[in-house]
Write a structure and sequence with these properties.
There is one protein chain. This protein has three domains: about 110 residues, Arc Repressor Mutant, subunit A (Orthogonal Bundle); about 130 residues, Nucleotidyltransferase, domain 5 (2-Layer Sandwich); about 160 residues, ATPase, nucleotide binding domain (Nucleotidyltransferase, domain 5), CATH 3.30.420.40. The strands form four sheets. Strands 1-6-5-4-7-11 form a six-stranded mixed beta sheet, with helices on both faces. It has a five-stranded mixed beta sheet with strand order 14-13-12-15-16, sandwiched between helices. It has a three-stranded antiparallel beta sheet with strand order 8-9-10, with no helix packed on it. A hairpin with a 3-residue loop joins β12 and β13. The C terminus is likely disordered. By secondary structure, the protein is an alpha/beta fold. α2 packs across α4 and α6 packs across α13. The two termini are about 30 Å apart. Helix content is about 40%, strand content about 20%.
Length: about 450
């Protein structure tokens, strides 16, 4: 288990404003709120996002937030008082606004408010505690054979895995506000049902994720594993320097998240990015999706291990065996990984040409096997699309195996930043009826 790994929060663009800034929102085509309660809720989120956007180590003052967002100092002071009472932010020392005047009191997200990040994959489960400042405070995982397992039993397993995470939160006085669960399959737009997860052999499965954190103010949000990992890469990894890229997730299956203009592109039905099921060999092996010759049948982890002749055993043991074989230059292992790289290159050529994306970030086992897989991948790119993706445009993720978990947690944090009024006694504060304030907000980052 890992503790204390810091990931800075992404900057959030404010869109709901008041006074002078309302003109900016109108120019952007943003629908402005019509009721006083709506305006106050929007401005509460605006101020909270402004504090979050400052990043770790920085603490904007009330005056700075007012100036940045076109709000009066009195309005910001009232909103900040509510946010402090809710526990979402805290005051932290003095911060001089400029060269003149008295220094103001800095404001930061409260590190004792957190969310839970969870991941179900084919051969493991993972859980982590991520605070509102973007720090991974506690992380644990265990191997589990989830393929073909009863979804209810998997939820029970991950509930047990949660116990040390909840204990870690309790030991530090950290309150859990919500969570996110990443799964290796297609998730419906409402985030309630797994439409299809071929490698788990699940179809039209509704998971009772709310039961994992029944006391939390916000729901546990369900998301696709590759999309969650792509968002984590955008917020915390290589994507901080990139605006457009393909994130390739390498697990037992292969998935991709498409990031365009610093936003996740999911397509009209939410199913974009199924790179693992791009056909790279029409006469290739049967695939779990029902097709044939998909990339996953050559570049998925199980496909690579089988082709390398690594005997059946726990995945971590097999992966260690593969790495040892590669370091020793063993033929079957080298050929298996080179073939995976070649076919991955073919699939990426199609993706890059269709989406016009200039960079690729490799995650999961592709990052782990980077030294051996990149040369074959690059040769494939040069043969089939010379000049399309240069070698420096193909990068390895630095987020290790925690990317999907961090992305799922990050989605939960964004939901809180969008709807902080959920945590404030509504009617007495002028935020309108609490009935209208859903804790099931799933705002896109």
């Amino acid at each position: 288990m890992d503790e204390g790994k810091i990931f800075p929060l992404p900057a959030m663009e404010a869109v709901v404003t008041k006074e002078g800034a309302m003109e900016t929102a109108a120019r952007r085509g943003v629908a402005l709120p019509g009721r006083v309660g709506d305006v106050r809720r929007g401005n509460l989120a605006l101020v909270l996002k402004g504090i979050a956007a400052a990043g770790p180590g920085l603490a904007p003052t009330r005056a700075q937030l007012a100036a940045a967002n076109g709000l009066t100092k009195a309005s910001v002071s009232s909103l900040v008082a509510d946010l402090i009472e809710s526990g979402l932010i805290r005051e932290l020392g003095l911060n001089r606004d400029g060269e003149r005047g008295r220094p103001g009191v800095g404001l930061q997200l409260n590190p004792q408010r957190a969310v839970i990040g969870l991941e179900i994959n084919v051969d493991y489960l993972a859980a982590g505690l991520v605070d509102l400042n973007g720090a991974l405070r506690f992380h644990t995982s265990e191997e589990a054979q989830n393929s073909g397992a009863d979804p209810r039993s998997v939820i029970k397993q991950i509930s047990r895995l949660l116990e040390p995470v909840l204990k870690a939160a309790g030991d530090t006085g950290t309150q859990i506000l919500g969570g996110g669960l990443a799964v290796p399959g297609l998730v419906d737009s409402a985030g309630r049902t797994i439409v299809s997860a071929p490698n788990l052999h699940w179809s039209s499965v509704t998971l009772e994720v709310r039961d994992l954190l029944p006391a939390a103010a916000f729901d546990v949000l369900l998301s696709n594993e590759a999309n969650s990992a792509a968002l984590a890469e955008l917020w915390y990894g290589r994507g901080r320097e990139l605006h457009d890229f393909v994130f390739v997730s390498g697990e037992v299956g292969v998935g991709a998240g498409l990031v365009v203009a610093s936003e996740l592109f999911v397509g009209p039905q939410g199913y974009a990015g199924e790179l693992g099921h791009v056909v790279v060999h029409p006469d290739g092996p049967d695939c779990s999706c029902g097709g044939r010759g998909c990339l996953e049948t050559f570049a998925g982890l199980e496909a690579i291990l089988s082709a390398a002749g690594i005997a059946a055993s726990p995945v971590s043991v097999r992966l260690t065996g593969l790495l040892d074989a590669l370091r020793n230059g063993e033929g079957h292992a080298v050929t298996a990984v080179e073939n995976a790289g070649r076919y991955l290159g073919l699939a990426l050529v199609s993706a890059a040409r269709i989406m016009d994306l200039p960079a690729v970030v490799l995650g999961g086992h592709f990052a782990l096997l980077g030294d051996w897989i990149r040369p074959a991948l690059q040769r494939s790119l040069e043969i089939h699309a010379p000049g399309l993706l240069e070698s420096e445009s193909v990068m390895l993720s630095t987020l290790d195996q925690s990317a999907a978990l961090l992305g799922a947690a990050g989605g939960a944090i964004q939901s809180i930043l969008e709807s902080p009024h959920v945590l404030i006694p509504a009617a007495a504060r002028g935020y309108g009826s609490p009935v209208a304030c859903s804790s099931r907000t799933t705002a896109r980052p």
